[in-house]
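JOB MANIFEST
job_type = single_chain_structure
chain_count = 1
residues = 50
[input]
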Amino acid sequence: MAKKAVATLQTGNSGRAHSKCIKMVKSPKTGAYIFQEEIVVNEKVNEFFK
């Protein structure tokens, strides 16, 4: 399934305009760290990490 998701992002020129960002966030309930993943437009990457 991962190949299908990647293939759909790379059709045309719009595939290079997106990036997959992974951020480590501390859970307020347990205090454990969790990973938050999101596909964002390259211009909004800095906003995702703030």
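[summary]
The longest helix spans residues 2-9.
The chain has a mean pLDDT of 80.
exit_status = 0
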